[in-house]
Design goal:
heterodimer; A: 396 residues; alpha/beta; Rossmann fold; 3 domains; B: 341 residues; Helicase, Ruva Protein, domain 3; Zinc Finger, Delta Prime, domain 3; 15 helices; elongated
Chain lengths: 396, 341
């Protein structure tokens, strides 16, 4: 199959993954898939989409085994829409899975499929499990009931325990090329080629982010503001204030959406318990509302972390471009529209300084996941990004 | 008036019914309700009531319940008239976690309290049993506030009241020194007052307080941060040791360091007046002034280094290092050395 050929059915929306798709199609055609799969690939390469397509192909009704994953039959359509009763798509909204969530999955894995051929459980972010939680899964992944198929997704095989890795058949997705992503955006989302090309470029071929950037004006502006941050850093005071702005932006964004969700969830819990909107909560039911509040708090925290992480990745692209210019590698700039500003910074600093700054950003990302106060981590990073005082000369 | 500050302002529920009498003047009554989390004050009232009843009637009988483990009928049993006409004191503790049995029995009792029984109830706050509290208040219970003392002025007031009750005189600076030394816990403060009153004669001055409680400092993260940012290294490290030794966790100390350093970094290098900065940065003017003063000790590069140092310390106290105490100490030393006086 050549790269230019249009893929059929459920496989159409996986740009630049021809090798993986070929392997998955063959497995689906044979009709006896391994009991556990591990889909790995960098964020945005379409891991969970690939998992979903594979699930659809396994459940597909097509008469010809090679045509499985037709995209036309009922099982295909319901799986792709995420409403097939035998295909569970699991993702956590918290920072990590809780052990109880996983225990529930395991009992679900014991059920026979109700209408399809297989019971398929797709864990979209298997990297968000602590060691203890993963250990609970081991037995079930190793020897599930005959009709159960586990599909775990993670950025890289190193993100899951070695004991899980060894029990799964690996599927590796690569970073799709910019043109492949742009082509998908034009075809599926109806963007103009220029829009699609810009979005694919600045998102570094992350399909989900590219689509959001192309569609959402606010997201584009936020990204632009983040990328321009280094341009307005002069003194330590600027750095601290910029850090405060960045954290506040992501916090308000995350907490307002979490609050909305929380209010809706509370309302629906009240409804299902038969309580009036303003009736007092009886003591026997209070624990349920407490649990909901707790869940909401975890969701908000995850939201803040995710949005800061996104901002830091965007910021990294700025210094990546600076380094590209400094080393004259000739590869394409991610932020080509800022070329003049980039060139100026490249001229004023050394590659060593740029590398150190990229390290500072990576350190901040690490610290945020290690539970350091986000504001403090960002301040330390911004302070590291400040231009060296004696301009032109590298600091020793 | 120490424990008698206007209550209820911070609570929306109607559990607070304005101010009752000062706890120092509590006298036996059929129903006495102690409201508030300060267990020491509640204990003092209980003692004083018990003593007053016993002075009147040596054979008085004292019964104590824990409202969370109460069993139905116990209250009625304890409150029923005795054959010999002795007076009775019933003490009910932890009403904040009362069980259903207690709730019902007390409500029934409040409707017709026995006149020869003194019943004291302590509720430390919260919404549990609001109905009971309302019933007690409706039945004419004497409500006594047991709010914790938060401000230094309140504690100073408490100390002078204590010495007044002991008919002793304490000088104002001695009072302040005493509060600074042992003021964090009210029970400890009261014990210190008693000790001073018993062990010394004459007026109590600063020297006496220093002899008994010298070298002890109430150390908080903010005091550590202030000393470090003003370049007072020895004080900063001394206060830090005190704070750690008295059980302060390293995490809030680092948070305090970060907060103070942030304020300094915000105003560093700004040439505007403190008033303008205060408006721009959303900080109170006194904070801006203090930060500006401390900012003078630092060069630009020093501040950059300090910010990185504190962030590293935060990562370390949250698990990246095996010795969180050393991590804080390192950050404090680094900042204090960077500040050039």
């Amino acid at each position: 199959m050549s790269a230019t050929e249009e893929l059929p059915g459920v496989w159409a929306d996986l740009p630049g993954q021809d090798q993986a798709v070929e392997a998955l199609r063959r497995a689906a055609a044979l009709g006896a898939p391994s009991h556990a799969w591990l889909f790995t690939g960098p964020p945005g390469s379409g891991r969970s989409n690939a998992a979903r397509s594979f699930a659809a192909a396994l459940q597909c009704d097509a008469a010809d085994p090679d045509g499985r994953g037709c995209g036309q039959c009922r099982p295909c359509r319901t799986v792709m829409a995420g409403i097939h009763p035998d295909v569970a798509l699991i993702a956590t909204e918290k920072v990590a899975y809780q052990i109880d969530d996983v225990r529930q999955l395991i009992s679900k894995a014991q059920d026979r499929p109700s209408s399809g051929k297989w019971r398929i459980i797709i864990v979209e972010d298997a990297d968000r499990m602590t060691e203890r939680t993963t250990n609970v899964l081991l037995k079930s992944i190793e020897e599930p009931p005959p009709h159960t198929v586990w599909i775990l997704c993670a950025p890289s095989p190193a993100d899951v325990l070695v004991t899980v890795r060894s029990r799964c058949r690996p599927v590796t997705l690569g970073v799709p090329s910019r043109t492949a992503v742009a082509e998908l955006l034009v075809r599926r989302d109806g963007l103009t080629p220029e829009q699609a090309d810009f979005a694919a470029r600045v998102s570094q071929s992350h399909i989900g982010i590219a689509r959001r950037l192309a569609r959402d004006e606010g997201a584009r502006q936020r990204r632009d503001r983040t990328v321009r941050l280094p341009l307005r850093l002069g003194t330590v005071s600027d750095a601290v204030i910029a850090a405060g702005d960045l954290v506040e932006l992501s916090t308000t964004e995350a907490s307002s959406s979490a609050e909305e969700r929380g209010a809706a969830d509370t309302a629906s819990l009240r409804e299902s318990l038969g309580l009036e909107a303003d009736a007092p909560v009886p003591p026997q039911l209070r624990s349920q509302f407490k649990a909901l509040e707790e869940l909401n708090k975890r969701r908000a925290k995850r939201g803040v972390n995710d949005s800061l992480d996104r901002a830091l990745i965007d910021l990294t692209t700025f210094y990546r471009d600076v380094l590209t210019l400094q080393l004259s590698t000739g590869s394409e700039l991610v932020n080509a529209y800022l070329e003049r500003e980039l060139a100026e910074i490249a001229h004023r600093s050394t590659p060593e300084q740029t590398l150190a700054r990229i390290d500072y950003i990576a350190e901040a990302r690490r610290r945020i996941t290690a539970n350091v106060q986000p504001l403090l981590a960002m301040e330390a990073m911004m302070a590291g990004l400040l231009p060296a005082r004696n301009q032109g000369e590298p600091r020793v | 008036m120490v424990a008698n500050k206007p209550a209820g302002s911070s609570r929306s529920s109607g559990t607070r019914a304005g101010t009752g009498p000062n706890w120092r003047q509590a006298v036996p009554a059929p129903l006495i309700l102690l409201l508030g989390p300060e267990a020491y004050v509640a204990g003092r009232v209980l003692d004083s009531i018990r003593q007053q009843v016993k002075e009147r009637d040596g054979g008085a009988e004292v019964t104590t319940f824990d409202a969370s483990t109460y069993q139905r009928g116990e209250l009625l049993l304890a409150a029923s008239p005795s054959l010999f006409g002795d007076s009775k004191v019933i003490e009910a503790m932890s009403l904040a976690t009362m069980n259903e049995d207690f709730l019902e029995d007390v409500q029934a009792y409040a409707a017709s309290p026995a006149t020869d029984v003194v019943m004291v109830l302590h509720h430390s706050g919260g919404n549990r049993g609001k109905k009971v509290l309302d019933a007690l208040k409706a039945a004419g219970a004497v409500v006594i506030d047991c709010q914790p003392l938060k401000k230094d002025a309140e504690k100073v007031d408490f100390v002078s009241q204590e010495f007044k009750a002991a008919r002793r005189r304490i000088l104002p600076e001695a009072t302040r020194a005493l509060v600074a030394a042992v003021g964090s816990d009210l029970a400890e403060l009261a014990a210190a007052c008693t000790q001073l009153a018993q062990d010394t004669t004459g007026d109590i001055d600063q020297e006496t307080v220093d002899r008994y409680f010298g070298g002890r400092v109430e150390a908080t993260g903010f005091k550590v941060a202030d000393a470090a940012l003003s370049g007072r290294g020895p004080t900063a490290l001394g206060t830090l040791r005190h704070a750690l030794a008295t059980g302060t966790d390293p995490v809030p100390i680092v948070a305090a360091l970060a907060m103070k350093l942030r304020q300094v970094a915000k105003v560093a290098g700004q040439r505007k007046s403190s008033g303008m900065l205060a408006k721009e940065l959303g900080m109170p003017p006194w904070q801006v002034q203090q930060a500006q003063e401390q900012a003078r000790y630092f060069s630009h590069d020093d501040l950059v280094r300090c910010l990185r140092l504190v962030a590293e310390a935060d990562a370390q106290v949250k698990g990246a290092s095996r010795d969180p105490q050393y991590a804080v100490e390192r950050a404090v030393t680094g900042i204090a050395l960077a500040a050039r006086r």
